Amino acid sequence: MTDTLITRRTALVTGASYGIGAAIAEVLARDGFNVAVTELKTDALADTLGKIAAQGARGHAVALDTRSQDSIEACLHEVVQTFGKLDLLVNNAGVLSRKSVVDITRAEWQAVMDVNLTGTFFMSQAMGRHLISGKRKGAIISIASTHGFLGIANTSAYGISKAGISHMTRMLAIEWAEHGIRVNAIAPGTTETPSRKASFDADPKRRQTLIERIPFKRFCTEADVAGAASYLASPAADYVTGQTLLVDGGLTSY
Question: pLDDT value at position 197?
């Protein structure tokens, strides 16, 4: 095992081909982690791996479908075999659904829950088992959302799944505190990813309406969320567990 693998901590970030997941992976690499990143197809991770390498860290791409228990277990095994250990899990993989309550089908509901809530739970379970069996401390960070705190029309399945992540965070934090495992979540407000920026550019009136609701009068950025993850992954947060950190420019303070 090389000196780099011995001295660096190791993180696993799910759904890291772009957006928030890619930004978190890059910041963790800057902060001293080697970073494994996942996507359904690993060829989508090339840009993220380049950003990790640019920070002087080692990256590793893993195919992962969080809807499959076999895929979850194979992913954790591959990461541990590659790096020798795993210190941090970031549950970022998720899907968004926009549909009214009266129109959403059972299949559409289940598709959201399978990825956002069930997938996050069983990824966390696998990480907890790894740390507990090895008698090692570690941390889990899951990406929740302000949709889990606010009532918002036409995103019921998504919002409920994200509210579940926040409560899951509290439950796991209590159960695993005796093992020195910290479990936290981040709830971003509307984050202006490239795809979302394109939709706002096409509808500037909607963009302005949403911004007017935010005390800081701007949207969240990928860097804002990555900064929160950097803190929660750091020794500065060693006494922080069971929390959902709202990164929303004051939106939920009303």
Answer: 83
Cβ pair 16, 48 in contact under 8 A: yes
What are the tens digits of pLDDT across the range 120-164? 999 999 999 999 999 999 999 999 999 999 999 999 999 999 999
Which residues of the chain have a pLDDT value below 70? Answer: 1-7
Strands (E), the chain: 9-13, 33-39, 59-63, 88-91, 138-143, 181-188, 244-247
Q: In the chain, helix, strand, coil percent, each to 5?
A: 55, 15, 30
**Pairing mode, strands 33-39 and 9-13:** parallel
Please say whether the dihedral angle defined by the alpha carbons of residues 185, 186, 187 and 193, taken in this order, is positive or negative: negative
Q: Which residues contact 65 (CB under 8 A, 6 or more apart)?
A: 40, 71
- As annotated, the active-site residues are 158
The alpha carbon of residue 136 and the mean position of all alpha carbons in its chain are separated, in whole angstroms, by 22
| CA atoms within 13 Å, Cβ hemisphere of 35 | 33
Contact 43, 17 (CB under 8 A): no
Determine the Cα–Cα distance for residues 161 and 250; give it in Å rounded to an integer: 22
Region of 59 please: left (phi>0), alpha (psi -120 to 50) or beta: beta
DSSP states of 145-190: -GGGTS--TTBHHHHHHHHHHHHHHHHHHHHHGGGTEEEEEEEE-S
Give percent above pLDDT 90 in the chain.
92
Read off the tokens for 149. Answer: 């705190």
Encoded amino acid at 120, one letter: T
Q: How far apart are CA 201 and CA 81, in angstroms?
A: 45
